[in-house]
Amino acid sequence: MYRCATFLVIAASLIFAVGLVSGCGGSSRSVLYSGVSLDGGPKRVVTDAAAAHDVRAVHAQWLAEITRRAGEDPGQRFANPPAHQLRLRLAKAAARYHFTVKKVQLLHPRQVAPLIIIQTRRYLALAHAVPAIENSLDPHTGPSDQAGWAFEGFLLEAQDERGVPFLDVFNFERGSGPGGGQWARSDQLYPFLHL
Fold it and tell me: How much of the chain exceeds pLDDT 90, in percent?
């Protein structure tokens, strides 16, 4: 009887530990619907339809910005690593961080501005890895965040396994006042500091 009870306690502990570890991988879909806090107010849950709408708007604004800036400072130069090097770095990141590459589009407002879409089931793990992924794809060599990026623009969208976006990071570096931003479906999915 004692052996049986001990076995049941051990088995229950293992099942709990496996459940805990699998939950820590960030694959629980609940994080997609946990909401975003805006200006300290109540959380707003971002539906699948709202996520798709928000990301279309982000992409349109980013495209308009890199297009406008292409005419603003045509003489500014960026390193522009070759396309094969970008794809190789992307393949390495995909293997390391467990995502699938869905789209790579190299836009040319003046030089190269990659638009990359990836998919994963590991939402939180990927969100936490985005700074490292972005740095490997758009390496930064400048003394500050204002200069030294490899591309004049960069956009990385992450989707869930159904193709619904859950985060976007982007920048535009050509011209005066470089900038960028991020969008996410929930507070936990922001890859960078979110105020």
Answer: 73
Smallest Cα–Cα separation from 68: which of 134, 115, 113? 113
pLDDT reported for residue 52: 98
As a three-state string, the secondary structure of the chain is: CHHHHHHHHHHHHHHHHHHHHHHHCCCCHHHHHCCEECCCCCEECCCHHHHHHHHHHHHHHHHHHHHHHHHHCCCCCCCCCCHHHHHHHHHHHHHHHCCEEEEEEEECCCCCEEEEEEECCCHHHHHHHHHHHHHHHCCECCCCCCCCECCCEEEEEEECCCCCEEEEEEEECCCCCCEEEEEECCHHHCCCCCC
60 vs 4: which has the higher pLDDT: 60
Distance, C-alpha 16 to centroid of its chain: 30
Q: What pLDDT is attached to residue 141? A: 81
- Contact at 8 Å (CB) between 111 and 83? no
pLDDT digits (tens, 9 = 90+) for 56-106: 999 999 999 999 999 998 999 999 999 999 999 999 999 999 999 999 999
The token duo for 160 is 């869930």
Bridge partners of 35, per DSSP, are none
Q: Are 182 and 191 in contact (CB under 8 A)?
A: yes
